[in-house]
Structures are given as structure tokens and as C-alpha cells.
Amino acid sequence: MNPETLRWIERLQLAPHPEGGYYCEIYHSPRYLSDPATLTAYGGPRRTATSIYFLLPEGDVSRLHRLRSDELWYFHHGRPLAVHLFHPNGHYEVKQLGLPDAPDREPQLLVPAGTIFGAELLPGAQAGFSLVGCMVTPGFDFRDFELISQEEVADRFPEHLDVVRRLT
């Protein structure tokens, strides 16, 4: 890992994330959602929102996973990301997250609840990492996080098997 990446990990006090990369929770709402719909969907109350820093170093990927909540990604620094989305309705798309200095690249994106997704650095000569912020609502809880196996996605998206293999 290059020295600049290590400096960011140390500066932001990031820890390894189960999906790959490094993270640190920077905010969790003091308020909880405990309405009947939330209790039914999530099996208990959830914070209204949570937010993390997430750093993906060169050579690592954000492995395919799924959340029960919506997740907004915000680009902060480094190399742009390709975020691969495998939607529940069978639609696949890849979005670029980064400074809007190239066509089809946006500084923020939404991953809808229930979408299988993962991310990887776009090729380039920029920094050897990407630093983003991720805000989840209702708030993130590891009980709502599911790592996805290659087999779970490959059958539904055989035309994207190369992406599935890279991200599992």
C-alpha cells in the first residue's frame, strides 16, 4: 500500500471493512425510527441515518453486498470509482463516482435498498485510492448487511460474469 493511502487511513482512523476497503463511522443519528413499518421491515428500531468515511485502496474492491436501506455515496478525494449495481428487477448498470470532469461521472450516487452492488477503482494515474462518504437511511446496522456470493449473482446476470468474479 502506498504511503499516501496509509496516511489517509491513519489520519481518519479507518479500520478494515468486511466488504473490503477501510471505514470509520463519523455520524449516527441520536433519533430512532420505531414506527410499525420499520419494526416489521428491520426487526427492530433503526437510527434515522448513519454516515461513514470509506476508503478503497488500489488492488482492493468493495465486494458485492446488499443493504436493507438506501445508501448515498459522496466522492471526496482520490481516484474515481466504478459502482456496479445489480437491481432486484434484473437490470444491471455501472455508475462512475468522482469529480464531474468526465462524461457520465457524478460526485454522488444513490444505491437503492435491496440492490446488490460493489465498487472498484477506475484505471488511471491519479491517487492509489478513493475516499468517499456513505450515508445510510434508515441507519446502517450490520444485521442489515449481506455479503453476496458469486453463485447468487452469476445465474441472474451471466452476461456480467467478469464483473461478478472481480467483486466476489
Automatic annotation (TrEMBL):
The source's superkingdom equals: Bacteria
Return the InterPro entries for the record: Cupin_DUF985, RmlC-like_jellyroll, RmlC_Cupin_sf, YML079W-like
Domain DUF985 spans what residues? 7-147
CDD domains on file:
cupin_YML079wp
**Coiled-coil stretches noted in the UniProt entry, renumbered to this chain:** none
Q: What is this protein called?
A: DUF985 domain-containing protein
